[in-house]
Amino acid sequence: MVIATGRSARHVHTLATRISEFLKDAELYYTPPEGVETCDWVVVDAGDIVVHLFRPEIREMYNLEKMWSVALPVAELTVVS
Predict the structure, then answer these.
(1) In angstroms, rounded to a whole number, what is the distance separating the alpha carbons of residues 4 and 10?
(2) What confidence tens digit (pLDDT) does each residue in 16-52 have?
(3) SS in 3 state form for 23-45?
(4) pLDDT tens string 56-76
């Protein structure tokens, strides 16, 4: 997962376009960018790599980095005999 910030909606759109062009030229798998209508949060899915492009205030609001800062709960297993 790649998380990046553009300075404006136009910058986010340009980044998404360039990434898509690179993937297409390299003949790598990708799906067309999602979110380019508003360019608040654009996702480019390239299979094993997913690129998230944000405007600064939107990145701060969603704070995807927090996914790695909190320990996941551990489920207890019960053995039945």
Answers:
(1) 14
(2) 999 999 999 999 999 999 999 999 999 999 999 999 9
(3) HHHCCCCCCCCECCCCCCEEEEE
(4) 999 999 998 887 776 667 777
Residue the block writes with tokens 């980095």: 65
Give the C-alpha distances (Å, rounded to integers) separating 13 from 34, 66, 71: 10, 25, 34
Residue closest to 50 by CA, chosen among 27, 11, 23: 23
53 with 41: CB under 8 angstroms? Answer: yes
